Amino acid sequence: MELVNPLLTEHIFEKFRDRNSNFANIIPSRAINKKKIDIRSVFLYHAGRTGGVALSTAFNAVISSLLEHTQSNSKNFAAGRVEVISPEALKAHHFFIGSHASYGFHNNFHPQPFQLVALVRDPVARVTSSYTKQCMRRGSLPTRDNFVHFLSETDVHNAMTCQLCGLDPGSVIQASHFEIAVANLNQYFTAFCETVHSKFILDYYFTLFNFPNLIQDIPNRTLSAYQLKVPDLSEAILEKNTFDLKLYNWVCDNSRMPFVEEIADEVSPFTVIMYENEKETHSAVKWRLFSTEIVVSLLDNEPELMDDVGALYKRCVIVSDNPKRSG
């Protein structure tokens, strides 16, 4: 297989990202020093349906691939989701934790330091998605009447503010709790933004840590068959999510997104591809580390693979495992 030049790689990654920004995370890693991996532990706080599972699985896939590739798959290293404290969780060194837990949860892992990250989402979209995901997992189509009932019973209202001020979901909150959430973000968090910009968090950390590139089929999304559009209920949702709306607007106006000052022209020679192979009853993902040369060559010769991360993954497996058949 011919070597892939940097300009072609840049073109392919940009084209892929522009073509599928709503359904896939295409993350080029541009570390200057490609010989050293420098991981600093990250803790992601996110309420349900804010896109945190995508970031969690991205970090988990890449870190797990690196540990396997370097034969450093120690039980003392961990990357993934932690929702409750356990002896096993406390023994591990966590490169990444994603959690729905309330702010302050990261202190359970002291003295391990974390860079704190948070995501927020438009309350109407988040609450609606909480209901439609529930329907999808149960295999029942959403209805307006059932959604109205859900709105009256659920504890997801103002969940973002509850989490970031340190309270449990469903807690009764007031203006002072919103101020605490904002103060926590201002004082303690390295990065925070709305869900639609979460890929820029991956951009930053993947280059900063010299991770492989990432091509990720964004997981845990509600399938189109279970979508529900009820614009007439938006006002009712916002009435129950006054503080989350204030928090969302504040984050939109004050997003904190660090950037790496010096980046390389060339991306990482390795790429992790991750796709969701089970979407409806539960979310399950597969991933693998590939040569960027193989990935770019396939995308250049078969651009239709940009529309199906799962198909790209399978083609890369075939070429990687059977190089003589790659043509």
Task: Name the features.
five-stranded parallel sheet; globular; 9 strands; single chain; alpha/beta; Rossmann fold; 327 residues; four-stranded mixed sheet
Helix and strand layout, with pairings?
Layout: H1 6-19, E1 24-27, E2 42-46, H2 52-69, E3 77-81, H3 87-91, E4 93-99, E5 115-120, H4 123-138, H5 144-153, H6 159-165, H7 175-188, E6 189-194, H8 198-208, E7 213-217, H9 234-240, H10 242-254, E8 270-278, E9 284-291, H11 292-301, H12 309-321
Helix pairs in contact: 1-11, 6-7, 7-10, 11-12
Number of beta strands: 9
**What is the number of helical segments per DSSP (H or I, 4+ residues)?**
12
Largest sheet: 5 strands, parallel
Shape: globular
- What CATH calls the topology of one domain is Rossmann fold
- Please identify the top-level CATH class of one domain: Alpha Beta
* N to C succession of SSEs: HEEHEHEEHHHHEHEHHEEHH
The termini sit apart by 7 Å
Q: In which range does the helix fraction lie?
A: 40-55%
Strand content: 15-25%
Structural class: alpha/beta
Any idea what the CATH architecture of one domain is? 3-Layer(aba) Sandwich
Low-confidence stretches: none
What order do the strands of the largest sheet run in, or round the barrel if closed? 3-4-2-5-6
Radius of gyration over C-alpha positions, nearest whole angstrom: 20 Å
> Overall mean pLDDT score?
95
